[in-house]
Model the fold of this input.
Amino acid sequence: MLYLERVSLVYGRGVPGERLALAEVSLAVGPGEHLGVSGPSGAGKSSLLLLAAGLYPPTSGRVRRPENTRVGLVLQEPEMALFAPTVREELAFAPRALGLEEAVVEEAIRASLVRVGLAEDLLDLDPLALPTAERRLVPIAAVLAGRPDLLFLDEPTAGLPVRARGRIITLVRSFPGTVMVASHDLDFLWRTCPRLVVLARGSLVADGRWREFIYRPEPLTEAGLVLPPVPAVLAGLIRRGWEIEEVGQDEETVARQILHGGPRRGGAG
Ligand SMILES: Nc1ncnc2c1ncn2[C@@H]1O[C@H](COP(=O)(O)OP(=O)(O)O)[C@@H](O)[C@H]1O
Ligand SMILES: [Mg+2]
Done:
């Protein structure tokens, strides 16, 4: 389990303009769980991720990660962190740091390329010279090549074209370890994370599964967020007396649920 225990974070403590970014946030994330973190701009999403990943310590409270876990962190605007002359070198960094043999490193590079849907002929190119979508996928592939158990992604879909966004959806869904994704893109979070927490002004204001947000979207709307289109259709059906056990994570699954679900007895539908 990953635990955040009454974690607070103050930027610039004691200097003018000090800023409380997180206020006593508590959270437990189970092994293999995929957790979405949303909230308006400035709510503390990035701060929460950076603390959970251990990039810096909280001002108060405690973060506990399981022992011997490999942490992978992809920052917002991850191109800023690209440093190697070729995609291959960029992707080789993390597996080499694990002390793997070169043949295994090569294997890890290829596997992570496939995971993000990048072609092998990009390996010898300069990552900074790639078109936006590919360039953005390189840091994600680089982090995956280090075989993290715990994956932290900060706004991974921001500014991405549809196809690259689709790649990220697929790779997050199929990632076997624990994932925490900060995003203002609720549609993306619905597709990738069965559980969602909402931050507002540094406080955790909601924590639940999509079914709960569909039955009671107030915590979202109060934070200035809206249900994504497909969950919103389910919410409309529920208002008309339908019942839903669990919320599917793509259109196909939800279509099947709508066909097989039904109005509750005595419902308004
Ligand atoms: N390095 C920093 N120094 C000072 N204040 C910061 C810093 N990073 C973020 N903040 C402030 O902390 C609050 C939370 O920011 P952030 O975690 O980036 O929110 P989000 O990712 O939800 O937009 C905001 O008020 C932001 O201005
Ligand atoms: Mg952010």
In short: The longest helix spans residues 102-116. The two ends are 42 Å apart (CA to CA). The first strand starts at residue 2 and ends at 11. DSSP finds ten helices and eleven strands in the chain.
